[in-house]
Amino acid sequence: MSLIIERYLDKVLAYANRPADEATAIRNELRDHLLEKAEAFHKNGLSIEDTAVRATEEHGHPRIVGYRLRRRFPLIDVRSHGTARGWIAVGPRAVGVIALGGVAVGVFAFGGAAVGVFAMGGAAVALLAAWAGIGLAPFAYCGIALGGVAVGGIAIGVVAYGQAAAGLWVPSAGVSVSYYAQGSAPEIIHTLYPIIGWPGGLAVLTAVLLAIGGIGFAVSYQLQRNEQARLQAAAPHVLE
C-alpha cells in the first residue's frame, strides 16, 4: 500500500513543481489524507491490497492534482496538458502576459487561435494588431483581415489593402470596393496606413513578423521539451 501511495505522490509532486520545502509539506499532507481514505475503505470491507489503489483513483489523476498545486501565476508555467497560467505561459491552452499554445490568451499571444493585445496565429483577435490566417484587429495583417487597417489576401476595413479589398478607402489594385476615390480620402484616413505607403514596408513587416513568430514557437517547443525532461528526471515513472 505504501509503495502505491508513494509512487502516486511522486507523480503529483513532479507535476506540481514546487520548491523542496513546500513539496515536502504538501507530500506529508497528501499522504495522511490518502492513508485515511485507504483505512476507511478497509473498514468498509475492501481488501488491504486494493485500498491504496482505490484511494489514489478517487483522489484524482496525478497530473490534474499536481497542476492544481502549482503556484498561482508563476514567472514561467509550462504544461503538457490543460491550461498553463503564468507571466510566460506555454501549453495546449495558455493564459499569460506572453502566451504560446494551441489556444493562447495574453498581451502577446501566439497560437493556433490567439487572443491578445498583439496576436499571431492561425486565427487571431487583437486589441491592437493581429497577424494571422484569419484576423480581427484595429491593425490586421492576415490572409483574411478585418480591421481599421486591414491588409491581406481578402481585406475589409476603414483602410483595406489586398487582392480583394473593401473599405472606406482602398489604396490598391485588384478587386476592390472603395467608398472614397483615390484622391478624395480625408487626411485622417491617410494617417492610418503609413506602412502601406512605405515602399517595401509590407515585405519588411512580413519578414519581421515571421521572425518573431518563428522565435516564439521555437521557444515554446524547447520549453515543452524541457518540461518533459524535468518530469522524467523528477520521477522516472511519471510519464508511464
Q: How is the topology of this model organized?
A:
Elements: H1 2-16, H2 20-43, H3 48-59, H4 62-68, E1 76-78, E2 83-169, E3 175-178, H5 187-190, H6 194-197, H7 201-234
Helix pairs in contact: 1-2, 1-4, 2-3
Describe this structure in words.
- The chain is of the alpha/beta class.
- The chain folds into two domains: 2-71, no CATH class; 76-228, no CATH class.
- The chain has helices at residues 2-16, 20-43, 48-59, 62-68, 187-190, 194-197, 201-234, and strands at 76-78, 83-169, 175-178.
- It has a three-stranded parallel sheet, with helices on one face.
- Helix 1 crosses helix 4 (62-68).
- It starts with a helix and ends in a 6-residue tail after the last helix.
Radius of gyration: 26 Å
Provide the low-confidence segments as ranges. none
The run of helices and strands is HHHHEEEHHH
- Characterize the biggest β-sheet: 3 strands, parallel
Mean pLDDT: 84
Secondary structure tally: strands: 3
Broad shape: elongated
Give me the secondary-structure category: alpha/beta
Quaternary structure type: single chain
The tally of structural domains comes to 2
**Hey, roughly how much beta strand do the residues contain?**
35-45%
> How far apart are the first and last residues' alpha carbons, in Å?
19 Å
Strand order of the largest sheet: 1-2-3
Count, helices: 7
The percentage helix is 40-55%
